[in-house]
Design brief:
This protein has about 300 residues and is an alpha/beta fold. About 45% of the residues lie in helices and about 10% in strands. It is built from ten helices and seven strands. It has a seven-stranded mixed sheet. Helix 6 packs antiparallel against helix 7 (about 215-225), helix 8 packs across helix 9 (about 260-270) and helix 8 packs across helix 10. It is elongated, with a radius of gyration of 25 Å.
Length: about 300
């Protein structure tokens, strides 16, 4: 018969100490409280949960975003209300690629903070980028920012879902559903090339195989309905494209005459087969390189 272990003996105490040490090593590290004073922009990492501060955001000034005046003004107005503690909508920026969807979100964030910085009691608006693959961690992210006295824009760039992806259901619940609902100090901004965030063939397949096709498609479309503000970005005209190019050239003081810039910009867009804000910026980078000028 095995003799009972005397827990008061030195051997037993040593064994218990080793067990306690081993369990501490197995336990996950405590998640440090986020320091939102470290920066105005952060990148959210889901595993382990953390906010990585971004000291310098890759952005352009809002006055350099040409040809999107209407959507720019709508997003500025919505964000300004939110930053002042008033009701505001989640926003979906959808449409043509390269037309400044993500650039607009980052530019509006900086513009609002600059506009209100001198107002007494103003709490800086924080921008937190969440990667598409971390959408399932949104409830954890929202719990981390819920108790902060800062307002937060949660931003997901190039958001879309494929046929086998069911994480859109958790996004729906977080945006408007669920018991707790969206925190008052949070709005969610997303960019996508798809208006409904789902490929058309996926929606059509749901329609063709469902017992009630209308209800199946409604389940998919209802995700985009969670965004109260839909901002459409469309391919730009040549005039808008050239306005973008000239605005960049003037801002950076590129030493070339207008006709040279105009001819070069048109030729550049023709070789790319596309006119957009991204194409305009790529041409400016090429032009500045040939002129041996820095874009500071």
């Amino acid at each position: 018969m095995t003799k009972p272990l005397d827990l008061s003996s030195p051997d037993a105490l040593a064994l218990l100490a080793r067990i306690a040490t081993a369990l501490e090593k197995l336990a996950p590290d405590a998640t440090p409280a986020p320091d939102f004073s470290a920066a105005d922009a952060f990148v959210w990492h889901a595993s382990p949960p953390s906010f990585a501060p971004v000291p310098r955001v890759n952005r352009v000034e809002i006055n350099l975003l040409q040809g999107i005046d209407l959507v720019r003004d709508l997003l500025v107005e919505n964000t300004d209300r939110f930053a002042r503690g008033l009701p505001a909508n989640n926003a979906l920026l959808w449409g043509a690629r390269g037309m400044g969807k993500s650039s607009l979100v980052k530019a509006v964030h900086a513009d609002i903070n600059h506009r209100h910085a001198s107002q007494p009691g103003f709490k800086a608006l924080k921008l937190v980028e969440i990667h598409r693959e971390d959408i399932d961690s949104l409830p954890l992210l929202m719990a981390a920012v819920r108790l902060s006295d800062h307002p937060f824009i949660l931003f997901c760039d190039d958001l879309s879902f494929d046929a086998e992806d069911t994480s859109y259901k958790s996004l729906k619940a977080v945006l408007e559903g669920g018991i707790e609902g969206r925190p008052a100090n949070v709005v969610f901004y997303a960019t996508s090339n798809r208006r409904h965030l789902l490929p058309r063939d996926m929606m059509e397949n749901e329609r063709s195989t469902a017992i009630n096709p209308g209800e199946a498609v409604e389940e998919k479309v209802s995700l985009s309905d969670r965004f109260g503000l839909w901002l459409g970005f469309h391919r730009c005209s040549q005039d808008d494209y050239l306005s973008m190019v000239f605005a960049y050239a003037a801002h950076y003081g590129l030493k070339a005459d207008q006709e040279t810039i105009r001819a070069g910009a048109i030729e550049w867009s023709q070789t790319r087969g596309n006119r957009s804000g991204r194409t305009a910026w790529q041409y400016i980078q090429d032009l500045a390189g040939r002129l041996e000028q820095r874009l500071d």
